[in-house]
Amino acid sequence: MNAISRQLLAELESELRSIHHETTKEDLAWQNKSPGAALGQGTRAIVIGSAVNGVFCAGADLKERKTMTKEEYGFQDSTNEFLTRLRRTFTMIHDSAIPSISAISSIAFGGGLELGLATHFRVFGPGTTVALPETRLGIVPGAGGTYRLRELLGETRALDLVLTRRKVGTQEALRIGLCDRVVGHTLKTKWTAKMPDYIRQFVLQCAIDMAGEICEGGPATTRPVMNMVRGGGEETEAEEYEKVLATEDRNEALQAFAEKREAVFKGN
């Protein structure tokens, strides 16, 4: 149920490529100081959620995988080709300069958790459960779960979760840093079990609200911040700061503060 099929993967990859093309055009125009160039005019945040109750994502579609043929993909091993595309798609999410948020209100096992790990933020509901159960099936996580889990939690905790395959609930996930926000935790457990549709939509809306908070900042600041925090040190910070310092948005923010009004950002 709600597994990563070939069709779902193709649609996700296509959407991400479209967003990447959109932001690349913006970046080039900005760098070349083209007339009217501005950042943040297109997609400014990505939210990934589930359209069904009970499962955020169950991982790869194992039933479909059995039907994959060598001829269909033109490669010696169709499963490896599928995994290559899956890794590439998840890496596009992870490496993007656009902040991404996964809204996980229920179960995320295997590739489902790996999808969540590929996003920059994870919002959990009160009954969320995640796990990497692959070794029970005689395989290993193959879409970034091992190294992204290590980067996030450290080597020991990553080994614990992968080798024992144990399920991690909401509160432990928050404690160890596997999720960034927990919402709906004040609701009583007996209610959450009876209202899966409400909980799913509530968690999704909270993730959308988080994206909204990000988008309230200056459009020209998001990508510099992503670069500064994820890949830099003092030199990167200085370079990105200088870029932002020269923007009209920075002057607008100072003027708005002096006039005690909301700033109107244009991304330039």
Describe the structure in your own words.
It is a single chain. The chain has 268 residues and is α/β, with parallel strands linked by helices. It is built from 13 helices and 8 strands. The chain has helices at residues 6-31, 62-67, 70-73, 78-95, 111-118, 145-153, 155-164, 170-176, 189-194, 196-215, 222-231, 234-245, 248-259, and strands at residues 46-48, 55-57, 100-104, 107-109, 121-124, 129-131, 168-169, 181-182. The longest helix has 26 residues, at 6-31. It is globular, with a radius of gyration of 21 Å. The N and C termini lie far apart (45 Å).
Short descriptors:
13 helices, 268 residues, alpha/beta, 4-stranded mixed sheet, single chain
**Overall spatial form:** globular
Tally of individual helices: 13
H and E string: HEEHHHEEHEEHHEHEHHHHH
Query: What Rg, in angstroms, do the CA atoms define?
Result: 21 Å
Strand ordering within the main sheet:
1-3-5-8
* Amount of helix: 55-70%
Distance between the termini: 45 Å
Number of strands: 8
The fraction of residues assigned to DSSP E strands is 5-15%
